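Please check this chain.
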Amino acid sequence: MKDVKALIIGAGLAGTAAAMACQRVGIDAVVYEAYDRTAHGVGASLGLAVNGFDVLRTLGVAEQVRATGWPTNKIALWNGNGRQLATAEDGTIEMTAERARIYGALYDETVRRGIPIEHGKRLVGAEHRDGQVIALFDDGSSASGTVLIGADGMYSAVRGIVAPDAPKPHYVGLTGGGGYTKPMDLGLDSNTFHMVFGKRAFFAYAGLPDGRVGWFANVPTPVEPTGDDLAAVTSDARKRQLLYLFAVDNTPAERIIEATGSIDLWGPLHHMDPPKQWYRDRMVVIGDAAHVPSPSSGQGASLALEDAVELAKCLRDLPDPASAFAAFQQLRAKRVAKVIAAAKRTNSDKAAGPVGRVIRDALAPTAIKLFARPGSRAWLYQRHIDLDEPVLAH
C-alpha cells in the first residue's frame, strides 16, 4: 500500500516495535497510549527468547535492549528433593532483564526516531469514513488513519471491536509472581536459570550480575482469585504462604524469599486463544491483543515482536488492508497455535500430583536432552523475519 498512516493503540513492547517496523518500511505511524504516563519502572523480569531478539536486530535496536540486562543461556532443572534432573546449554533465551528496562529502551528509541507517542488516549470506539479509520478516545478527541493496529494487551479495546465474540482469557490453574532479593551470596552463575519443580509449587531463580537474585513462583490454585482476593493478601502474608509451600523442598527458595523486600506483583496466569479472524475492516490486533500464550511459554514478548515486523511487511507489500491483514494472519496463526499448545503442556507439569511428579522427574533428563539437541526446536527459535523479503498475497 502507498501513503499509509498507521494508528497504533498501545505503547508497550508490541506497540513500540510496530511503530519502528512501520517506519522502517516507509509507513507513518502514531502511537496512542491509554495511560497518562509511561510504564518505566513497572513490571517484573522478562526472559527474551532468541527469536524475539532477532527481531530487535532487524529493527536496529538490539544493542540498546541488550544493555538493559544480562545473558542467560543455560538452564538447570531440579526437583523438590534438591536433585538436579537435568542441565543444558539451552540456547533459547538470549537475555534476561527487568521488563521495565526493556520497555524503556524500546519506548525511548521510538521517541528518538521521531515517532509520536500520545498519552492519555484511551480508545472507546472506531468508525470508518471515506476510506479511513477514525479512532475515538475517551477525552473526546479522535484520530484518522489508513489502518488501526491494536497492540493494547490482553484486555484490548481493539480486540473487543474487531472480534467481540473472540475467546476470553482462560485461567490456567496457577497464580504467580516474583521479585528481587537484596544482594546475597548463593554462588550463582548469572548465565544459568534454575527451575525447581517443587512438591507443592514451582520456583525459578537466577543470579543477577549485581549480586541480587531474581525469582518467580507458580502456585497451583484451583479457583481463580478475584482482584479483591488478591488485594486482601499483604506482601508479608504472601511471603508466609510461599515460605510454607517451599518448606518441604530442599532448595534455596526459602532463603531467596526471606531476602526479598516486598512481593507486590502477584496474580492469576492466563492464556488466550486468538480470534477466528484477527482483523475487521481497517483494524487488526497483534501481540497480547491477538494471542496470549501462558507465561510458561517464555514467548509472549517474542511473538509480539514477530507480529510487529510481519504486519509492517504485509502493509508495505499488499494493495489494501484486507489482503494485508489476511496475509498477516496466515503467516502467524499456525505458529502462535503451536506455542500456545506447548505452554499448556508445561503448565500441567507445574501442577503435577505425586504420581505425575515421579513420571516427570524420570523423563526430565531425556526430555532436556531432546530439547537441547540442535534442530529440535529450530521451528521456534531459529525463526528469522527478513524485512526486505516481499510478502505475497495469501
Summary: The chain has a mean pLDDT of 89. The two ends are 16 Å apart (CA to CA).
